[in-house]
Transmembrane protein
Amino acid sequence: MPTTAEQPHLNGAFYGPLIQLKSKSNNRLGDGGSCNPLTCCFSCICSCVLNLICQIFFTVAIFLAVIGLIFWFLFRPNVPKFHVDDVTLIVIVSF
């Protein structure tokens, strides 16, 4: 395989043919795509609203988790501890 200016010498190993990456087309207004203005605006609004709802949900969830963790450390439930001070043992022997 001959080396070119685009691909330097790779120790004589063949790593497969070069892959040409396709450019992404976002079909937005003004880029020459075939996009209906109403559907583009609707999808953009839906996307923005869903993004906002997700951001609010995750922000509230993280905030509540941090508050819960703080309360857990402040008012940590402890297992009650018992100590025995005096023990009396009664043995009944019957023959």
